[in-house]
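Give me the fold.
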Amino acid sequence: MKVLDTDRLILRWLTPDDAAFILELLNEPSWIRFIGDKGVRTLEDAKNYIVSGPMKMYSQMGFGLFMVERKEGSIPIGMCGLIKRDTLDNVDIGFAFLSTYQTQGYGFESASATLKYGHEQQDLKRILAITSLENQASSGLLEKIGMKYEGTIILDKEKLKLFASEK
């Protein structure tokens, strides 16, 4: 199901058919370094990740992490979406892209559209974002889309930067 449409991108729900892409994305060095090793090593692992993560959140919340595809050629390039974690009081925005497609404005384009979607379509008053202390690219992107740095928090024994956007 298509959720968002930008100048160059389509954001849509993930399905088990996206397992090969998810397997590649979750094993990118930048994913493992900044997000963490999810232990996804096979297509079956990737399908389980999609079903138990994004698809479960779609059914519970009406949103989740979305596939980001380039309109030109329907090429999958990353994920961007809204996540409700048990460990945070508010929904947060998350994103990750294949290294081939980083630094081309796709993160900004999809994250700014997702933030607007969260505030306007999902009526979320406050949206958070977290990033590792050393992930300067993500911190810069969050500030560029209008999120404000609020300090650091400890989440799952890891010190992270916390950003927020208020409606």
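The helical segments are 19-25, 29-34, 43-61, 106-120, 136-144.
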